[in-house]
Amino acid sequence: MKSVVSSGNSFELSTEHSRLQAEAQQVAADFAPRAVDIRQHLIDHSEIHPELWTTFLDHGWTDLRRPGRAGDRGSDLLGTALVLEAFAEQGIVLWMPVLSAAIAHAIEAVGPESARQTWLPRVYAGSTHLAMAATEPSTGHNMFGVETEIRRAGDHFVVNGLKRITSGVDLADRVLVFGRADRTDRSAGYTTVLVDPHASGTTITEVPMRYREGVRQFQLEFDNVAVAADALVGTEGQGLLTMWPFTHVERVLTAAVCTGTAAYSLTRAIARAKDRVISGKSPIGAEQSIAHPLASLHARSAAVRLLVYRTATRIDAGADADTIAGDINIAKLLAADLAFDSADHAMQVLGATAWDEREGLIDIYLDARLSRSGPVSNEFALNHIAHQVLGLPTHRS
Fold first, then answer.
1. Burial class (CB in 10 A: 0-12, 13-18, 19+), 117
2. Dihedral, 97, 99, 104, 107 alpha carbons, nearest 10
3. DSSP label at 48?
4. What pLDDT digit, counting tens, does each position of 81-97 carry?
5. If 98 and its partner were Cys, which of 5, 152, 180, 253 is the partner (CB 3.0–4.6 Å)?
6. 306-332 pLDDT, tens per residue?
């Protein structure tokens, strides 16, 4: 599937992607009246709503990332972004497909072949969800500071450490764990392995975060957890090479969800601004204090969406990772801020109605706020832009 058509000053979705987007928007609109129930079903039953997921599978949307499907080039990140954005536009945030797609991309990029053959068909078939355990209480998003150890012990690995926050462990068949190859030797590098979250020695503790992004959040403690050697992703001691392709896809898809969330918030706010009359005869949308922020957010949305689409397209085209990392972080940063600002203004426009939990907007608002802190904080994204794009000095220089 060709990603975009760029001609002269135009930058438009291809016919295939426009068709995919329209199809996803129609399906998402059909499910929109049940958005609150769909979110609650996953929380109550530890599964994506069966009817929604069956529809997802019937349309082949979990399979878009399969190499070879999207024309001669391979995996189609833009298509996945369009689908997840379409559902977010209807207030349906699908976080587990983001994680599974990003981990599958990393497995495809770094191997080994046994991991590709075992896990990629399951992810593309939609029969498996994968989770990620990278952050730790003391180091947050600083992957260089992790203390979890993944040490080789003969024909297997042993995992020890503490991870928090890990999303969707109750749905996941495996968790991709990132840790040091040897705590005593800082030069040994890092290793990534797929761990069964129910393996002996693993303690799962739910972190009460009110189900942000529509999933449960957990702390994982590993106490001498034995992991078979074939659970290795990438190369022992080179786990950072696993994390880069993972984070690139995760951030782009997060940005797509954020642009969809922003669109949902704006749609709700605009409808209210057109209909709500508090005093006089004119709706509140006639007031510049209501109208101008909506107009500004709409303008920002148009620009951010274009950047997200272009960034996904460049990844699909095989752009050099170092070259595109700046755009990836910029897209995530701007999309997260857009989502929060849009949700925040929608809360103001809807007033007391927005705080009625049955409306679902309070969850959208809190999800949008979280997007500024994770899956990577905006501060870390700004650090990358400042140091790697602008060439500014760091405290370590």
1. exposed
2. -170
3. -
4. 999 999 999 999 999 99
5. 253
6. 999 999 999 999 999 888 999 999 999
DSSP 291-312: HHHHHHHHHHHHHHHHHHHHHH
* Three-class DSSP category at 182: coil
116 token code pair: 């590709």
What is the DSSP code (8-state) at residue 375? Answer: S
**H or E element in which residue 166 lies:** strand 156-167
Cα(first)–Cα(last) distance of the chain, in Å?
44
C-alpha pair distances (Å), 351 with each of 274, 328, 348, 354, 359: 14, 35, 5, 6, 12
Tokens 């840790």 belong to 179
Going by DSSP bridges, is the β-strand pair 130-133/174-180 parallel, antiparallel, or unpaired? parallel
DSSP reduced 3-state for 242: helix
Phi, psi of 340 (to 5 degrees): -70, -45
Give the mean model confidence (pLDDT) for residues 170-179.
98
Q: For residue 322, what are its two tokens?
A: 């170092």
Cα–Cα distance measured from residue 171 to residue 125, given in angstroms and rounded to the nearest whole number = 16
What Rg do the C-alpha atoms of the chain give, in angstroms? 21
Q: Judge whether 155 and 126 are in contact, CB under 8 Å.
A: no
Burial class of 6 by CB neighbour count within 10 A (0 to 12, 13 to 18, 19+)? exposed
Q: What is the mean pLDDT of residues 1-21?
A: 72
Q: Which domains does the chain have, with CATH numbers?
A: 4-125 (1.10.540.10), 130-233 (2.40.110.10), 240-389 (1.20.140.10)
Distance CA 176, CA 110 (A): 13
- Helix and strand numbers, DSSP H then E, in the chain: 11, 10
Residue holding tokens 């000095």? 393
Q: CA dist 223 to 155, 183, 200, 207, 314, Å?
A: 18, 15, 9, 19, 41
User: How many Cβ atoms from other residues are within 10 Å of residue 229's Cβ?
Assistant: 14
